[in-house]
Each structure stands twice: as C-alpha cells, then as structure tokens.
Amino acid sequence: MALIDVHNVKGEKIHERDIKDEIFNVFIREDILHQVIRGQLTSSRSGSASTKNRSKVRASSRKLWRQKGTGRARVGAASSPLRRGGGVAFGPLPRDYSLKINKKIRKMALRMALADKYKSGQLLVVDNIHLEEKNTGKFFNILKTFDLDNVLIITEREDENLEKSSRNIRSVKLLRAEGLNVYDILSHENLLFIEGAIGKVEEALAG
Question: Which domain, by its residues, includes 83?
Fold first, then answer.
C-alpha cells in the first residue's frame, strides 16, 4: 500500500491515507493510453456529415439538349456531379466512428492515468470541499490555497453548490467518481480528489 497526504481546504495536512498499489502505482504503457483516448475521442464524433449523390438530388432526368447537331458538348441529366446544383460525387455519408475498446483495457488505462498523476506529484486529496452557497469566488480561493490551475476535481456524489461554483472557471472541470475517464485525467495538469471519491474509484477499478 502506498500513502498519500490528505489536506483540508486551508491546505493543512490532517492525515495520511492508504491507496492501492495495483491502481496508483502500476507500470504505464503509452500505447494503451493512446488506444483508449483515441477510442474515447472517435466515439464522441457525431458522424452526421451528409451529402446528396446524383440519385438524391431533386432534378429532372431529361436530357438537357440533344446529343448532336447543336455545336455544344454532349450533356446528360441536370443531377450530374459535373453541373452546378448537381449531386456530389463520393461525398461524406453518415457513419459510426466509434472504436470498440474492451472493458479490461479501459480499466487498465484508467489505472495507468491515475498512476501517472500520482508518480508525477500532480494528485492531491482534500478531505472535503463544502460550500454553503453557490460562490465562484470562495471556490477560486480554495484553488489558490493549493496553487492549482488546470485541474480536474473528482467528487464522491452530486454537489450542486460545488458544481455551479466551478463551472465559470475555464481551467477547472468537476466530475463525479463514476464519470472518471482517461482523456479528462490526462488533459488536465492536476487531479484533485475529494477523499470519499477515492474509495469509489478503487472499488470500481479493483480486480
């Protein structure tokens, strides 16, 4: 078992907590992290780009003028891709970009992302952040206490005051433990856990 310091909102260390080595102290493989992040990003693509080919364009199929004798180039229907307003040749159609990533690989990548933050000293734990009202200023002062910028905060449960106080700060993102993902961990410089959320994450990633 590894140990990590737990602080209060004033930045004072209040105790140490055990964290599981099989989650926060694993060997990091960049290829697995890359695979999972790529899968996460491609799955978020809507894939809704769409064009009309010549069969879908609303236009007469009648030959525009006769084949010979006019002195003009031969021509077919108005829906031809060669004509303005005609169909698009080989244009994009709706498609599914998602990549299937096995559950075992996703869990492994989450452990590696957490281990990366722990080993680099960018993982902090706070016993609790309680705001009696929605107040961005008070929340920002807590972050200043820890000298945090570009931070992902993991909470144990829904907290409306905390969520609404943090959403106006562009460099801060708040996630509940069940929504933890590799991309958000690695795209933020720091990772801040509310202490109760660690147990939930360890339970989800065990085995």
Answer: 51-91
Q: Which helix (H) or strand (E) holds 183?
A: helix 182-187
pLDDT digits (tens, 9 = 90+) for 19-45: 888 999 899 999 999 999 999 999 999
pLDDT in tens, 87-126: 999 999 999 999 999 999 999 999 999 999 999 999 999 9
pTM, two decimals, is 0.81
Rounded to whole angstroms, the Cα distance separating 203 from 207 reads 9
Q: Residue 112: which of 32, 47, 51 has the closest Cα?
A: 32
Dihedral angle over CA of 158, 159, 160, 162, nearest 10: -140
Q: What CATH number is associated with residue 168?
A: 3.40.1370.10
